[in-house]
Amino acid sequence: MMLRSVLVLTMTFMMFPQLAEAGRHRCRTACAPCVACSDSAAGCSSCGEAAPATMVEKTIMVPTTVMETRTVTKTVCKPETREKTVKVAKCVAETNYVTKQYTVNVPTWETKSVEYTVCKPVYETKTGTKTVMVPKYETKLVDYTVCKPVYETKTGTKTVMVPTWETKTVEQTICKPVYETKTGTKTVMVPTWETKVVDYTVSKPVWETKTGTKTVMVPHQEERSGTKTVCKMVPETVSKTRCVDKGCWQTKTSTDCCGCPTTCKVWVPNVVQESYDCTVMKPVTEQVPYTYSVCVMKPETKEYTYKTCKTVCETKQKEVKYMVCKPETKEYTYQVCKMVPETVTKEVKHMVCKPETKEYTYQVCKMVPETKTKEVKVKVCVPETREYTYQVCKMVPETKTKEVKHMVCKTETRTKEVPVTSYKTVYEDKVCSYTVMVPHTVTEEVQVPVCKMVPKTIQVPAANCGGCAPACTTCGG
Fold it and tell me: Would you indicate the residue range of the signal peptide (predicted)?
């Protein structure tokens, strides 16, 4: 809209100099005799006498551009939203269950009898002899000396004094014990250690390596083939229609009220429906072969080695220490106590009144040795031969049978339903909205520059030509 207005104004301003030049040219044409008369001295002299130059007011028409408001009709394309129904392809998944067979190795337990050797201990009782030192107690008479006290009564005299205390020395006999060391002999059983060689039986284990066979399930990879449904999107060309405006700009010329031509560009719409090709991705299902790996358990026989223990009896010798009691005579010392009389002097206080002699009796103890006999028990070890029994263990091999469970894989065919997904193309009607430019005729007021002739008074010199003045006057008018 603004572009059209600018174009109209530009063209109008470009036409203003031409219009002005046309007016001047029209004035010059009307005033041609007058100009010729005024420019040529000879001409003027032929017309008459030369008049003095005087200024004359003349009114001329000057073109002036004036903006006027005019009503213009133009075509405007307005966007209009429309709806259309389009078919849309949609992939719908369908799941169908197909029955397939597959092989499974089912482990089962089977029982088989296996022989094995066991070493069974057998105990045997044997008799042997051994010498044992048996202690015995014997009674023996032993002489020993004992000091026996013997009391003897003696008579003595004493002087009794008058009651006066005097000190006098008195001798007194005392029995004093005297110890005497004596030597004797005795028989003692002395234990001694002796060594002898003894035979004994030892069970020695002997390991023996044997070979056996066993069945082992070994996994193997097998390649198998199958088919699967694959959906691919394939491009497909579809024809569609659309509305296209193939209008053009046209130059429209009009004449205003003054007779001035006006040129403007107007858009002339031309809505045409045309078809075009569109690429659409169409889903296509296809059965494709493929391979897959399956783990299959297959039985294999393998050899293995194992060790068996056998017990072998072996006789060995060893040195054994045993104790033997042997009699041995030893000397020993012992002490004998004897009471020996001894005279001791001491001071005694006594009262003397009158000297008087008196007899008195007193006892004296003497230790008299006496030999006695007593029975003593003596421990004597006497060698004695005894019989004893002992057990000898022998390992006797024995074969036994036991039932052993072992696993065996058996092939079993089973059936299962596998879901297979296939894609189906379903067309749906979908309403789409699109925008179309619809031409509309709109009337609006536009400011248009208009060239108008406005009278203007100017001072010009007057020309005294015979027939020119009226013509110039007329021209000026």
Answer: 1-22
